[in-house]
Amino acid sequence: MMPSLVRLGVILVPIVTLLSSAALFLRIQAPSPIGQNPFSTMATPQAPISEMTVASFNVRYDSSASALSSIRQLLRGGFAPYRSMSDRSYPPEQRYGELHWAKRVHKVVDTAIFHRWDIFSFQEVLPGQLHDLVGLLDARTEGLPPISISKGRDQSPGENASATGNRSHRYDWAGVPRNDGKAKGEAVPVFWRSDKFQRIGASQGGTGNEGVEHFWLSPTPEAPGSVGWDADQTRMCTHVALQPSSSTGQLIHVFSTHYDHLGERARAESSKLILRKAREAVEHTKETTGLDPLVLLMGDLNSPRHERGWKTLVEGHHGVDRDSQGNGFTFFDGALSVPTRFGTPYWPIPREEKTASWTESSDGGLLSEPYGPQTTFTDFQKSQKTAEDDRIDFIMYADNSAVKDHTEPSESRQRWQIITFGTIPSWSEGDAGFQISDHRPIQVTLSWQ
């Protein structure tokens, strides 16, 4: 009997060892629970920031798709409450070129994650969409606006905040709905990497009590929901002051906005208001810290280059004369300021004076021209407008001592400098191909050099 037990032991020992090794391997390789970031519990080193990627994307409000579905909704007695991307009851088929938000949201988030955006803004974000973006981006969940939930739908990522506990999140954000500043209407939120930046209040040279300010594009900017000049709708701007975890010591002011689509005067007046707000932010920061901050303006301005909305912001640059009554504080347009080998097809001169020559550079390591398509507004069907008229999304940066621009003389000390600009395609190859929005996202890379 003993020899039999010995033989049995010889057989079992390797099997037990193998099973134990397999269990250890599976435990190491097991995927994280759904909705949990596998890197969220890891300590993140606070390395100096020498380069950052900044982006802006009009994601298209959740319109519940086509005119046909809208008619059906009206015949049924009105529009249904918001249904998140986790709602499995929405029609999966493509309709009239625009897919339901529940389909598009995943590709919107993929774009931000794949391109490793550090600071970015979205436009046309309804409260329910904000819940989805926050959940899928692994952003802080506090401060989300309430939403109306349709019966029978699954839980949205933003609603599962309690499951995340007190762990750190990859992104922080700020934004409020524009109709009332609380729960109704579109938002223009700003997101940023929480391991790279922190909000800075006015007492430390930033803005507001907690580094955030919201104002409306109207003669009464402090009044939520106010409509300005000849605008068709209420419009607003979210302003965030950030401190990078780097040795630069310079604050960053970020303004995210969405101008009115009908009121041309409203767009021009909105630019004047933002210039004033940005100038005040710079003056306050400089008084408090002694340094000029980097100021970024991004969003859907609905203003082509031939309009005063754009010209007011860039006076003194890109072929636009400075207004004799101006205060000298203006912005560079990122698409027209990026250094390239073959110049830019965006033509920083009036349309009636176009020529066929670009300023060329023999320097290596530069883009040949701004990356990607020239237009940023695509609609969901072919546009009849020119490329110039359909470039209405912008990333700009203020002309002050925090930046140096290759088109302007500058001293040799270190500053932020734009090194790439691109318009990213908004086409997804999934499900036979579809557009994830009626706008393309735009992106710049800034380097401390």
TrEMBL record:
Native organism: Acaromyces ingoldii
Chain positions covered by the region annotation Disordered: 146-180
MF-aspect GO terms: 3'-5'-RNA exonuclease activity
InterPro entries: CCR4/nocturin_mRNA_transcr, Endo/exonu/phosph_ase_sf
Domain of life: Eukaryota
SUPFAM superfamilies, per the entry: DNase I-like (SSF56219)
Protein name: Endonuclease/exonuclease/phosphatase domain-containing protein
Polar residues composition bias: residue spans: 157-166
